[in-house]
Amino acid sequence: MKVVSFFSGCGGLDLGFEQAGFEVVWANDNDPAVSETYQLNHPNTYLCKKDMRELTMEEIPECDGFIGGPPCQSWSEGGKQLGLDDERGKMFLTYIDFIQSKQPKFFVIENVKGILGDKHFQTFMKMLDQLKNAGYVVHYQLMNAMDYHVPQERYRVFVVGIRRDIDVNYQFPQPDNSCFIALRQAIGDITEEPRKYTSERVDTRYDKWLNHDVYMGPFDERFMARNRVRGWNEISYTMQAKARNCPLHPQAPKMVYVSRNKQIFRPGYEHLYRRFSVRECARIQTFPDGFRFIYHDVCDGYKMVGNAVPPRLGRAIALSVKEAFSHYNHETCSVLVATYRDEKQLRMTLENKLYYVRAGIRTGAMQFSLGMKAPRYLFLHKKDSFILFLLKEVEPRLVSASYLQNLGFNPSGEQYWTFELLDIETVERTEYVRKIVANHGGMKMKPYIIRYRK
């Protein structure tokens, strides 16, 4: 599948998609500090260096998917949190406009967890509604990179949208807690001393390790407010875009608490405290050793690495998209398999031409994403009784218990998804679907959806 990339940076997310078998045909980033690095490491991708706000739809090639992480500074908990009041924040809306206009089969958006905070959550939900109204089933999840074979604690929000006419069931990748990667495993073999820089021009000649350069600027009060050292058998703190905020190498002991918002280097060991080098940061971000970062100021090296999506995390997202599309078939049908309590409930269902299931996260509840299309059929069962309904092709509707009570139903929860019935299917069709349901795990009490080829 072909994808185009926005806010590409040095190409961490792009590399993850390439590793998963996608073809990144076109990328866009107008930061001159990243272009050489991107072009060197992605020779088969055309890099457009225009400001995305100046792009026309004709300049964006046809593709299967869009990927990109809009600037995070506007939403970051460590920044001013200006959101859409910041020009960088508005670029999120530009990206949404592109999705609305080009209608790719899928899109991926990455951003910081601050976008889920109280200050920005309503704005975030409105943007998701915009994507829903553009014709997409939208999923979002807060993910920690450490759960996907990345040796650092790094929380990021991912939004994945699948065009509504493509009937696939997308699922985010499951965390893999069996593969904890500590710092010793990640960077323990880099034993050479890094080359030290403050603001002078970086020497681009390297020996064994590319980009083994370390920023040696001073440590400010904010940096010294808490411990910045993780041990060899731990995962790293989050890689940062600013060189001065980079975590410290595990060769040094953990910092010593003095008072609230003040820690010091352990006396007698001050010489061991240094930041990770650019190459060590790249390792912790899961870039391969052959991925070369080109910069003249070492701070630009840290910025490229720190802003990137860890390729391994990007690959996990890419594989989940690939898995969803591997089941895509134009000739598939979906069936909601559920039960009915008694004859009274069945009668009310027939009279109102409406079936409901509990919403939320409690046992027996069903979760639907924004914009998800209703199943084609409803298969109701109770012991040896089976009824098949054709459903209206409209979105499931989220309603309150009081809404259902006014119709004569007797719900016991708070919120429910409703499905509109169109007609009762024939006995022959019902028996055909019954056999399919039996082959998919049988008649369960909890409602669930199956898909089958026509």
UniProtKB/TrEMBL annotation:
Pfam families: DNA_methylase. Keywords: Methyltransferase, Restriction system, S-adenosyl-L-methionine, Transferase. One of its GO terms (molecular function) is DNA (cytosine-5-)-methyltransferase activity. This is Cytosine-specific methyltransferase. Transmembrane segments: none annotated. InterPro entries: C5-Methyltransferase (IPR050390), C5_DNA_meth_AS (IPR018117), C5_MeTfrase (IPR001525), C5_meth_CS (IPR031303), SAM-dependent_MTases_sf (IPR029063). It catalyses: a 2'-deoxycytidine in DNA + S-adenosyl-L-methionine = a 5-methyl-2'-deoxycytidine in DNA + S-adenosyl-L-homocysteine + H(+).
